[in-house]
Write a structure and sequence with these properties.
The protein is elongated, with a radius of gyration of 33 Å. The chain contains 37 helices and 33 strands. Helix 23 packs across helix 24. The model has no long low-confidence stretch (mean pLDDT 92). Among the domains are: 87 residues, 2-Layer Sandwich (D-amino Acid Aminotransferase, Chain A, domain 1); 133 residues, Glucose Oxidase, domain 1 (3-Layer(bba) Sandwich), CATH 3.50.30; 246 residues, TIM Barrel (Alpha-Beta Barrel); 35 residues. By secondary structure, it is an alpha/beta fold. Strand 21 and strand 22 form a beta hairpin. The strands form seven sheets. An eight-stranded mixed β-sheet has the order 14-24-23-16-17-18-19-15. Strands 26-27-28-29-30-31-32-33 form an eight-stranded parallel β-barrel, surrounded by eight helices. The protein has a five-stranded antiparallel β-sheet with strand order 1-2-7-5-6, sandwiched between helices. The longest helix has 26 residues. The structure holds adenosine-5'-diphosphate and magnesium ion (2 copies). The site of one magnesium ion has 5 residues, from helix 32. Keywords: ATP-binding, Nucleotide-binding, Pyruvate. Belongs to the PEP-utilizing enzyme family. Pfam families: PEP-utilizers, PEP-utilizers_C, PPDK_N.
């Protein structure tokens, strides 16, 4: 790239990084032969130069001059000309779409002289003054920083003085009055007017668009969506076309398919006699696209044809901004449209069906994150009774919370841990902080393409928009519907963005249809077919197995229904929570007699539990992990016990048993239990525990065999750091195996080890010599690699780290690729070099995290084991990782 400015009609593949999304798509549409008003793009490189040096790069002004001259030549009009004035828009457009987050100024080029010329050439006085008042307002707001409310008040005053209902009822004189008073407002608030020199207007607008990259709402948007801060925006300068030239003109937004459901059909909105801003801002309620068909049939058909061309070109859902000027159609923007999770699956599967994309491509277009959302429960309409209000189903999902009527309250209440529902007349870009804080959004105005709807869908936030007759009174903090109070700030409401209904009170949710289908119910719907189709393809494609972590027969059964190929982790300590804890306590610190009894009981309990799990798994592998918890978790609380003993003393009846128990708990007290006597260390100190657990597993397997049920048993040793530790435990296990074999015949099993200490990872080679399989416990591995306690860090400094950007995500949620991930990769390679083909699994939290699965699969692990609910997500992500 040599120049900082590129014409929309320049040849070659448009470079998105330089031209931004909007500029690149405008250039592409010109190449596709679509009717795009001419113009040029100032590159992101120019913007970055301005940020770095505080001034425009040398040559930029000349480049703009040159392209402006070309534009004047092409349109036959000149900027500032008293006969044939050229009007342009100055539009932001970053490489990653940030809808509505930065500034745009329309109608640049008007001043007291050119407004008269525009009136003359169009023969329409009112129209010319309508453009001028728009320029004063947009320039005032975006370049001069005059608050939008001030203009709002001014418009309201002028409308009232003219006895009209809205601006449409105000004539040319009224609009001229509005221009004058708007300009006075600029002088009052910003100390200056709209410049009369159109070149100066243009330059100031360009600089303002650059600067809007650093605006608060743009920053917030980037941090929410992980867009880097240094990229900068491109600026598009484009000849104006006018949707505000009367009844044969208008502006609209259209989708090639329904962005909420993926259905085919007409989705979009059209506003006659309006410029584009009016549609997006939701200040006037637009009519559905289908109305355009009645208003202007040829234009409607031309638009449908263009939408077809765009869909075939992008091979995806597109959204389009268009304007009709006096019956002539112009396309002002297109992009691959944002969509709800349900629409993502539907559209991907439909495009495969239509032969537009391959199944592999379809898989890449959906994500585990979206599937997670489709599995969330929905509001139970049956139990909720009649809705309090109903509008458009703008973004699916269900949530409940307290009504809040402004951003600051939403943010403050959310910070106190309250669930809030943001209720606004409409949302604008300034409402983003409130939307981020809220569980759901409700608006009175605006359609499915309004700001609220678009942003909510992108965030996966339930939203109901366009509730007709909903009035929000910010003084009384009351919300009324058709004049009757429905709820007040602070009331709890439940919002169903899938149906567009809002209910008073907190309501029950029901399982989503996708979840019901996964559970084995016979659900027939286009969405379920789409999910089924893509999951089946993921299963065919993926090279990584998917298992589940489960401790109950119920969970194993669900996991199997959800597609798990086995149980990768049975946390046996989970079987000794609550009342059962004392079995382990007695084994650990009881008298000799108590220990014998407790071991026998523990054996019996485990034998039964294991048999249930093995049976539920139906012959699929089940990995039983030996007891793993910090020692103290099995003991009574030291302080409580000390108090009991002291009380007994004081009362004059000291209790020897209690004293002995207290002494034992004291003896075993550890300062750092997480790095203390746990996992394999306990197994070595108390081999009888290993023998009891292992023989329970073997007996359970033998019981099943006797009943003719298949089973595939694995035993796994936790927290191992050296091959010698594993060897010691292997001997106890072998002893139990021999013992059971003598009575019941041999039970085949495999013995493996967890890799969850950094030492285990770097000695995976020698470990693999002694183990039949390895499984990464990425939770402990993260904790020990970083040297930070998960339980404590998440409550103390991690939140601050995330806020300040020291960390981009919690390493306990998404795998730390550079550190922990590197250890995993190294261990996989060394284990395989030492013992080719050794199965290596991952059974930590990360195995079910959509953002980690692709990375882990890429390291060549054999299987992922995650919570049952995450199994479908892991299947899908593993499939995506393989295409
Ligand atoms: P955003 O990125 O916030 O959507 P845009 O740059 O797309 O901002 O502009 C805002 C509105 O102004 C859109 O509705 C667009 O269609 C309209 N618009 C932009 N440029 C022109 C133009 N040259 N002629 C007519 N309308 C325009
Ligand atoms: Mg736009
Ligand atoms: Mg662990």
């Amino acid at each position: 790239m040599t120049s900082f400015v590129h014409s929309f009609s320049a040849p070659g593949t448009p470079d998105r990084d330089q031209l931004g999304g909007k500029g690149a798509e405008l250039a592409r549409m010109v190449q596709l032969g679509l009717p795009v008003p001419p113009g040029f793009t100032i590159t992101t490189a120019a913007c970055r130069h301005v940020f770095e040096h505080g001034t425009r790069p040398a040559g930029l002004t000349g480049d703009i001059e040159h392209h402006l001259a070309l534009l004047e030549e092409e349109t036959g009009r000149r900027l500032g000309d008293g006969e044939q004035p050229l009007l342009v828009s100055v539009r932001s457009g970053a490489a990653s779409s940030m809808p509505g987050m930065m500034d745009t100024v329309l109608d640049i080029g008007l001043n007291d002289e050119t407004v008269a010329a525009l009136a003359r050439v169009t023969g329409d006085d009112r129209f010319a003054w309508d453009c001028y008042r728009r320029l004063v307002q947009m320039f005032g707001e975006t370049v001069l920083g005059v608050p939008a409310e001030r203009f709002g008040e001014l418009v309201a005053a002028v409308v009232a003085e003219h006895g009209a209902e809205d601006l449409a009822g105000v004539g040319a004189d009224g609009l001229r009055d509005l221009v004058e008073r708007g300009d006075a407002l600029c002088r009052e608030v910003a100390g200056r007017s709209l410049p009369q020199d159109p070149r100066e207007q243009l330059d100031l607008a360009i600089d303002a668009v650059f600067a809007s990259w650093h605006g608060e709402r743009a920053r917030l948007y980037r941090s929410r969506f992980g867009i880097p801060d240094h990229l900068g925006t491109a600026v598009n300068v484009q000849a104006m076309v006018f949707g505000n030239r009367g009844a044969a003109s208008g502006s609209g937004v259209a989708f090639t398919r329904d962005p909420a459901t993926g259905d085919l059909g007409d989705y979009g909105e059209y506003l006659p006699d309006a410029q584009g801003e009016d549609v997006v801002s939701g200040t006037r309620t637009a009519v559905p696209m289908a109305r355009l068909r009645e208003l202007d049939r040829p234009t409607y058909h031309q638009l449908r044809a263009i939408m077809g061309t765009l869909e075939r070109h992008y091979r995806d859902l597109c959204d389009i901004e268009f304007t009709v000027e006096d019956g002539r159609l112009w396309i002002l923007q297109t992009r691959v449209g944002k969509r709800s999770p349900a629409a993502a699956f539907r559209i991907a599967a439909d495009l495969v069906e239509e032969g537009m994309i391959t199944e592999d491509e379809a898989l890449v277009r959906v994500s585990g994150e979206q599937l997670t959302q489709l599995m969330f429960p929905q509001l139970d309409a049956g139990s909720a009774g009649p809705p309090a209000a109903a509008g458009l189903a703008a973004s699916p999902g269900a949530a409940a919370g307290r009504v809040v009527l402004d951003n600051a309250t939403a943010v403050a209440m959310a910070a106190r841990g309250e669930d809030v529902v943001l209720v606004r007349p409409e949302t604008r870009a300034d409402d983003l902080p409130g939307m981020v804080a809220a569980r759901a959004v409700v608006t009175a105005r605006g359609g499915r393409t309004s700001h609220a709807a678009v942003v909510a869908r992108g965030m996966g936030l339930p939203a109901v928009c366009g509730i007709e007759g909903l009035e929000i009174d910010l003084t009384t903090r009351q919300v009324t519907l058709a004049g009757r109070p429905v709820f007040a700030e602070g009331d709890v409401v439940s919002v169903d963005g899938g149906t567009g209904r809002v209910y008073c009170g907190h309501h029950r949710t029901v399982p989503a249809e996708v979840t019901r289908w996964l559970e084995g119910e016979n659900v027939e719907s286009p969405l379920v077919s789409a999910v089924a189709r893509l999951l089946a393809h993921a299963d065919r494609t993926r090279r990584v197995g998917v298992r589940a972590n489960a401790e109950t027969g119920h969970d194993v059964e669900r996991a199997v229904r959800f597609g798990a190929e086995g149980v990768g982790l049975v946390r046996t300590e989970h079987m000794f929570l609550g009342d059962r804890r004392t079995y382990v306590e007695r084994v650990l610190i009881g008298s000799d007699a108590e220990r014998e009894d407790a071991l026998r009981e523990l054996h019996a309990l485990q034998r039964e539990s294991f048999a249930v799990l093995l049976a539920a798994a139906g012959g699929r592998p089940v990995t039983i992990r030996l007891l793993d918890a910090p020692f103290h978790e099995f003991l009574p609380d030291l302080t409580e016990l000390a108090v009991c003993a002291a009380t007994a003393q004081v009362r004059g009846n000291p209790n020897q048993a209690l004293e002995d128990r207290l002494a034992a708990v004291r003896r075993h007290h550890e300062e750092n239990p997480m790095t203390g006597l746990r996992g394999v260390r306990l197994s070595i100190l108390r081999p009888e525990l290993v023998v009891a657990q292992a023989s329970a597993a073997f007996e359970a397997a033998a019981d099943l065999r006797d009943r003719g049920c298949p089973c595939d048993l694995e035993l796994m040793v936790p927290l191992v750091s050296s091959a010698q530790e594993l060897a010691v435990v292997a001997r106890s296990v072998a002893q139990a195996a021999d013992d059971v074999a003598a009575r019941r015949g041999r039970v085949p099993y495999r013995l493996g080890t967890m890799v969850e200490t950094p030492r285990a990872a770097v000695t995976a080679g020698p470990l693999a010599q002694r183990a039949d399989f390895l499984s990464f416990g990425t939770n402990d591995l993260t904790q020990l690699t970083w040297g930070l306690s998960r339980d404590d860090a998440e409550r103390s400094f991690l939140p601050r780290y995330l806020d300040d950007g020291v960390l981009r995500s919690s390493p306990f949620t998404t795998i730390d690729e550079e550190g922990v991930g590197r250890l995993v990769g190294l261990a996989v390679d060394e284990a395989r070099a030492s013992r080719p083909g050794i199965p290596v699994g991952v059974c930590g939290e990360h195995a079910g995290d959509p953002a980690s699965i692709g990375f882990l699969a890429g390291l060549g692990v054999s299987y992922l084991s995650c919570s049952p609910f995450r199994v479908p997500v892991a299947r899908l992500e593993a499939g995506r990782a393989a295409v």
